[in-house]
Design goal:
Length: about 325
C-alpha cells in the first residue's frame, strides 16, 4: 500500500509539474502574441494618426496641382489665341509651345504638390533618384526619348504641317496630327497610319503639297504607220484649250520610246492643285486624247503576237508531194 501511495504521489507531482510547465509556456506564447498584436496595432494607429495629421497638407497639395493643371489649360488657350491669328506664325510652333509649355507647368505643379504633401521632400531628392536610375531608364526608354526629341525637332523645323500630303518610307497619307511621340497620317483609302517620329526624322520625306503647282504626265502610244507630228499637234491642241492647265511652265509632247508595237509619246503639263486635282486632270486629258485620235484616224496599237505551228514530218511530206 505504501508503495502504491508513493507511486501515486510521484505521478501526481509529475502531472502537476507538466501542467505548470504547459501553463507557463502558454502564458509566455500568449504574452508574445499579445506584444506583437499591440505593436501592430500601435503601428497602424501611428500611420492613421500620421495620415490625419498630413490630410490637410494632402488636400492643399491636390488643390495646388489642380490649379497648375488649370493654368496649363489657360496657357494653351492663350497661345492659340495670341499666335494662331498671326499669319507669320508657324503652325507647328503653336503645337510646341502648347505641349512642351503645358507639360512644364504640370511638372512644376507636381513638384510643389509633392513638397507640400510629403514631409522632408525636396526636388533635389527626385533629381538624385532619377540620376541613380538614369542608366536603367536610358536603356528602357531609349526609343521613347528618341521619338520625343525627334518630335520636338520636327515641330520646330516644320518640314511639313498638318494637312500636307507626304510620303515617308513608302507610306503615303495626309498629316492629321504631329504629336511628341508619333506622326499620324490618313491614307488615301481612309486608314490611319502611325509613324514614330524617329522614323520620320531620319527618313526621306516627300511633301506632295509643298507647292501648289504640280506636274501631270502620261504616256500614249501610236502606230508606226501614223503621222507622229499630227498626233503631237492633236494633243497640243487639247492641252491648249484646257483652262485648268497652266501656260507656264509650258506643256509638251515628246517621243519617249520606239517600242515593239508603238511609238510612245510622253505628254507633260502643269496644274494648280488649288483649282483641280492631278488625277482629275490626267483622266480628263486622256479621255479627250482617245476621242481626238479616233476622229483623226490615229491608232493606239495594242500588242499583237504571231503564232506559228510547226507540224514536223507531215509538213515535210506535204511539201514533197
Amino acid at each position: 500500500m505504501a508503495e502504491q501511495e508513493n507511486t501515486l504521489k510521484e505521478v501526481t507531482q509529475g502531472t502537476s509539474e507538466l501542467l505548470q510547465e504547459a501553463t507557463a509556456k502558454t502564458a509566455k506564447t500568449v504574452a508574445e502574441y499579445t506584444d506583437k498584436s499591440l505593436e501592430a496595432y500601435s503601428t497602424i494607429d501611428h500611420f492613421i494618426n500620421l495620415f490625419w495629421e498630413r490630410l490637410p497638407y494632402i488636400c492643399i497639395a491636390l488643390v495646388v496641382f489642380t490649379v497648375f493643371y488649370m493654368l496649363s489649360k489657360v496657357f494653351k488657350l492663350f497661345i492659340r489665341k495670341v499666335l494662331s491669328d498671326r499669319s507669320y506664325t508657324k503652325q507647328n510652333l503653336v503645337l510646341v509651345l502648347n505641349r512642351v509649355g503645358s507639360s512644364a507647368i504640370i511638372f512644376f505643379g507636381f513638384l510643389i504638390a509633392m513638397v507640400i504633401a510629403i514631409p522632408g521632400f525636396t526636388p533635389g531628392q527626385l533629381m538624385s533618384a532619377l540620376g541613380i536610375g538614369s542608366v536603367a531608364i536610358g536603356f528602357a526608354f531609349k526609343d521613347i526619348f528618341q521619338n520625343l526629341l525627334s518630335g520636338i525637332l520636327i515641330l520646330l523645323g516644320e518640314p511639313f504641317k498638318i494637312g500636307d500630303d507626304i510620303i515617308v518610307s513608302g507610306m503615303e497619307g495626309t498629316v492629321e496630327d504631329i504629336q511628341i511621340r508619333a506622326t499620324f497620317l490618313r491614307s488615301p483609302d481612309g486608314r490611319r497610319i502611325v509613324i514614330p517620329n524617329a522614323t520620320v526624322y531620319t527618313s526621306p520625306v516627300t511633301v506632295n503639297t509643298a507647292y501648289p503647282r504640280r506636274r501631270c504626265q502620261f504616256v500614249v502610244g501610236i502606230g508606226y504607220e501614223d503621222d507622229v507630228q499630227k498626233a503631237k499637234d492633236v494633243i497640243l491642241a487639247i492641252l491648249d484649250k484646257d483652262q485648268a492647265i497652266l501656260s507656264q511652265p509650258g506643256f509638251s509632247v515628246n517621243v519617249n520610246a520606239l517600242a515593239d508595237f508603238s511609238v510612245n509619246l510622253t505628254v507633260t503639263w502643269w496644274v494648280n492643285t488649288s483649282e483641280t486635282t492631278m488625277s482629275a486632270s490626267i483622266s480628263d486629258v486622256q479621255q479627250r486624247v482617245i476621242h481626238a485620235f479616233a476622229e483623226h484616224g490615229i491608232s493606239i496599237p495594242y500588242p499583237v503576237q504571231e503564232v506559228k505551228v510547226y507540224r514536223g514530218e507531215q509538213a515535210a511530206e506535204s511539201t514533197t508531194k
